[in-house]
Amino acid sequence: MRLSRYFLPILKETPSDAQIASHRLMLRAGMIRQASAGIYSWLPLGYKVLRRIEQIVHEEQQRAGHIPLLMPTIQSADLWRESGRYDDYGQEMLRIRDRHDRDMLYGPTNEELITDIFRSHVQSYKDLPLTLYHIQWKFRDEVRPRFGVMRGREFLMKDGYNFDLTKEDALHSYNRHLVSYLRTYERMGLQAIPMRADSGPIGGDDTHEFLVLADTGESEVFYDSQITDLKFGDRAIDYDSHDACRAVLEEFTSRYARTDETHDEAEFAKVPEERRRTARGIEVGQIFYFGTKYSEPMGATVLGPDGTRSPVHMGSHGIGVSRLVGALIEANHDDKGIIWPEEVAPFQIGIVNLKQGDTDADAACEGLYQGLKSRGLDPLYDDREERAGAKFATMDLVGCPWRITVGPRGLKNGVVELTSRRTGESEEMSPEAALDRCAQIFAGV
Ligand code: ATP
Ligand code: MG
Predict the structure, then answer these.
(1) Ligand nearest to the CA of 260
(2) Which residues, including other chains, have CB under 8 Å from residue 411's CB and lie 6 or more apart?
(3) Ligand 1 atom closest to Cα of residue 324
(4) Could you give the CA distance from residue 26 to residue 30 in angstroms, rounded to a whole number?
(5) pLDDT tens track for 293-337
């Protein structure tokens, strides 16, 4: 993308009402614009990041064998009356009445709708196991929407639902989700720690939240520091293997890690003192096993191998896709701006032309721009007539992980400069070498 033709409405002033870094930076970098309290338009730069995150979530869900579909945002209240949640959900639910005086609502989650789809089409254990998911906008009329996209009223969530014949199979689905979530967050360059949690209005026996440690997180967390050494990495895992998935769950959940809702001082005291940590965290996902909580009242039963019908065992599993944009920035920024992990960067490489209008500089930039694109990369070329300082400041704010700086002086010696946004380290090399290096850096991404 050529910056002169892009829509990147950068703010000069730091917005005074934004309390945390990610909110400030998203506004300053022209990623979002508030439409009304807790509701945002995603401007082109923000939208690109959101799409990158969605893409990773889709890939990892499908790798685990989960099937994408798309349910609507507006739901009928009748389904929620069947489960009993229409009254229970309270003020957070945005209730709508249509022209025929029917009660509708903007979905805060989708257990009822997916259970209705399931009961209409699945009758036999032979069609199980089944996990369906979508990535769709949700609305929760939060008491205090704040911190930008971190706690919005309208937000994008991946929510998935597993259907299994037995509790044992459903717990395997739970474990499989835990594994796939570990992979998903790590691919984004984030460490999200599974912590024992409380089940809240979704209800359930077994639940873990995934938390990214950050001072600005809304949850208080207590954990054994050993847990931060665990990495899932790129292990090959058979998602159908109950044992393999259970082993990963045990590895990642055997050490003490809880949010304030389930924190137990006596248990925590058993962790050696030097490893006890209290910190804050951002909840970026949660998995639940809740058995027959919805299938029973809604009559979602299947015929088992013994010829009897029984309610299907379910769980639901969410990833806060739009909140992740904020969480990623909280974990990756400095006072100059955002530092995107390579996997989610809106543009991977920034090209700064120090002397727009200079024949050699323009030609070299053009060559790099085309060369990067032909290597499948997505560069942002600052081709504006601006001072070098302003161009650097824009690139630092927007957070491209790599920058190529091109100027007449370097070109006289046949070199451009490749700079890492994260380390600030620069290296001079020929334009061709810079192209190869960039292709190499992003080969595995
Ligand atoms: P919270 O405790 O933060 O209110 P929750 O536990 O009610 O969240 P879930 O029902 O578990 O949320 O939803 C799954 C994921 O959706 C959460 O882990 C979070 O990442 C994200 N999420 C929930 N509420 C919001 C919100 N208001 N704005 C942005 N993301 C949200
Ligand atoms: Mg939650």
Answers:
(1) 1
(2) 360, 361, 364
(3) 20
(4) 6
(5) 999 999 999 999 999 999 999 999 999 999 999 999 999 999 999
Of all protein residues, the one whose alpha carbon is nearest to atom 2 of ligand 1 is: 283
In sequence order, the 6+-apart residues with CB closer than 8 A to the CB of 313 are: 163, 164, 165, 166, 167, 169, 170, 289, 291, 292, 295
Residue pair 259/211 in contact (Cβ under 8 Å)? The answer is yes
Ligand 1 binding residues, C-beta < 6 A = 109, 140, 142, 151-152, 155, 157, 200, 202, 283-286, 318, 320, 322-323
The DSSP output letter for 12 is: S
Neighbours of ion ligand 2 (CB under 5 A): 286
Q: Round to whole Å and give the CA distance between 118 and 312.
A: 10
Q: Which structural domains are found in the chain, ordered by start?
A: 3-337 (3.30.930.10), 347-441 (3.40.50.800)
Tokens of 165: 């014949």
Q: At what angle do helices 44-63 and 321-331 cross, to 10 degrees?
A: 110
Q: What number does the ligand 1 atom closest to the CA of 109 have? A: 10
Residue for token digits 């965290």? 281
Cα of 367 vs centre of ligand 1, distance in Å, is: 45
Per-residue confidence (pLDDT) for residue 42, from 0 to 100: 98
| pLDDT score of 15 | 85
